[in-house]
């Protein structure tokens, strides 16, 4: 996979995009709306969850999607997988506060065309959008290798770990993944085994070291 690293000196391609914004934070959606309209892009819709985003693709016909990862009712990784299955033609740029060294490579493998960190990434948004439309894959340098302890985790295992680090119990994890408590127990055991840990306390401490909370 050929991956380009974005820089602030790049020049955006002049093209008006039909953008679907997907983020559960209304203030982020409002900020992105202002930035995109300033650059003459068209906002065709906004969604607060992955499930809503997948439905809106069919009715709004976007030319590009901006996608958060940390959302309720189908989080970002599951949304990317669903989009790759049903709308593989749609370029998706991930815009997230989650650690790029943990998530960028995973997003690239699921078909995302770029990964931006909220804050610094917003200033480069039009640049990244223009280059993505030219066919480039644009990710921070961490995408090349990722963080080794996380590379062997399945997406569901990573989501379960994030829920546990945030103080979620078995029911919270089950609801986030739409699975039973028995499945969550299996995921927990797999996490402990794959990460070489023995207790839930060690598991949570490990996740916090990598800022999964």
TrEMBL record:
Pfam families: GerE (PF00196), Response_reg (PF00072)
Top-level taxon in the UniProt lineage: Bacteria
A GO molecular-function descriptor: DNA binding
Keywords linked to the UniProt accession: DNA-binding, Phosphoprotein
Entry-linked SMART domains: HTH_LUXR (SM00421), REC (SM00448)
Biological process, per Gene Ontology: phosphorelay signal transduction system; regulation of DNA-templated transcription
Transmembrane segments: none
Record PTM 4-aspartylphosphate, positions in chain: 68
Span of domain Response regulatory: 18-133
Protein name stated in the entry: Response regulatory domain-containing protein
Species classification: Bacteria, Pseudomonadati, Pseudomonadota, Gammaproteobacteria, Pseudomonadales
């Amino acid at each position: 996979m050929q991956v380009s690293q974005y820089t602030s000196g790049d020049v955006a391609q002049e093209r008006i995009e039909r953008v679907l914004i997907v983020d559960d934070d209304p203030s982020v959606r409002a900020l992105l709306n202002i930035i995109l309209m300033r650059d003459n892009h068209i906002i065709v819709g906004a969604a607060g969850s992955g499930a809503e985003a997948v439905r809106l693709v069919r009715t709004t016909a976007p030319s590009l999607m901006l996608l958060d990862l940390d959302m309720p009712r189908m989080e970002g990784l599951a949304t990317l997988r669903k989009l790759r299955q049903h709308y593989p033609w749609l370029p998706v740029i991930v815009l997230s506060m989650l650690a790029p060294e943990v998530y960028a490579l995973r997003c690239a493998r699921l078909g995302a065309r770029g990964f931006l960190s909220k804050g610094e990434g917003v200033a480069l948004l039009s640049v990244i959008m223009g280059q993505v439309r030219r066919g480039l894959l644009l990710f921070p340098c961490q995408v090349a290798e990722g963080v080794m302890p996380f590379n062997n985790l399945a997406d569901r295992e990573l989501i379960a770990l994030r829920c546990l680090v945030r103080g979620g119990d078995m029911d919270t994890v089950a609801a986030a993944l739409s699975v039973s408590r028995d499945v969550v127990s299996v995921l927990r055991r797999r996490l402990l085994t794959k990460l070489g840990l023995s207790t839930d306390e060690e598991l949570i401490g490990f996740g916090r070291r990598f800022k999964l909370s």
